[in-house]
Specification:
Layout: E1 2-9, E2 15-16, E3 30-43, H1 45-56, E4 62-66, E5 77-83, H2 90-101, E6 107-121, H3 127-134, E7 140-146
Antiparallel strand pairs: 1-3, 1-4, 2-3, 3-6, 5-6, 5-7
């Protein structure tokens, strides 16, 4: 079974997208950033959900959304990016290492993919500019989803 958890910070608001770019965009743009964890697992769904909330979610400042649908409407585009398969992803390795220490977890974690998701809002947003300035093609892959 494949399931996605998107983790948001309860206290974050839209930020100025200029802070993500080397060169200011032609028009003012805003953004929101989240982390997405895409799991392929087998077993007890409740035990798996408890694992995710224990390992990935700070209950005070974060919220987990279990769905692959975008969280916010009205974005010009969404940029998803993460490490390529052969590149070292320390957060992914830490999660997998913790999973391996569990005794009888009631589920098998077959695959884990981490993606940073950036929602960009505003008229005239150029996805290519964001990909060029944010994604390192030597070690990262990316996908642009147009709203």
């Amino acid at each position: 079974m494949t399931t996605t958890y998107e983790i948001t910070n309860k206290f974050d608001t839209e930020g100025d997208a200029q802070s993500l770019l080397y060169e200011p965009p032609a028009k003012p743009l805003r953004f929101r950033k989240t982390m997405r964890y895409i799991f392929d697992y087998e077993g007890d769904a409740k035990a798996f959900d408890a694992f995710v909330h224990e390992v990935l979610v700070d209950r005070i400042s974060q919220t987990a959304h279990q769905d692959a649908k975008p969280l916010w409407d009205g974005s010009a585009f969404i940029l998803d990016y993460g490490m390529k398969g052969g590149a070292l992803d320390l957060e992914k390795e830490a999660i997998l290492c913790y999973y391996r220490t569990l005794k009888a977890p009631a589920f098998n974690l077959n695959k884990l993919t981490l993606k940073t998701r950036i929602y960009v809002f505003g008229e005239g947003a150029d996805a290519d500019l964001f990909v060029k300035d944010i994604v390192n093609p030597a070690i990262q892959n990316s996908e642009v989803i147009h709203g």
